[in-house]
Automatic annotation (TrEMBL):
Family: Belongs to the DtxR/MntR family.
Domain HTH dtxR-type, residue spans: 1-63
Source species taxonomy: Archaea, Methanobacteriati, Methanobacteriota, Thermococci, Thermococcales
Organism (species): Pyrococcus kukulkanii
Protein name: Iron-dependent repressor
Keywords associated with the record: DNA-binding, Transcription, Transcription regulation
Amino acid sequence: MVSKREEEYLEVMYLLQKNKGVIRVKDIARILHVKPPSVVDALKKLAEKGLVEYEKYDRILLTEEGRKIAEKTYSKHLLLTEFFTNVLGIPPEIAEEDACQFEHYVHDITIQRIKEFISYIQEHCPYVLKQFLKKVMEESGSGKVGEVADEH
């Protein structure tokens, strides 16, 4: 079993490897807003679980199992972000923040249904979706999809 925090580490490492080609302790620490010793402790635990290959002062690599968990977490993140912004009209920065939280707790069945719902509504009910988003924009007073008017 992998904890929410371990999923976060794996996802960050996956994105670092994908985008930078290398995973560094200092980069993980910066992204997760933790100190490098905390990253080292997490890497040791992930290595014990067979999710990363880590030796002090050596390169950090995701194992096949670690990569699969990271990819699954990241795909949930992308789907939830899309759902929150493009279907519910949530502001992108809030959608991103919420997706980071939801991705670790939402059941696979729920993710599948959200995926099916997005596909269905985009294919069969694009007008309804457009009208809903228009209503949300008008009510928020922003005029832009995904923006919420400041209530203060």
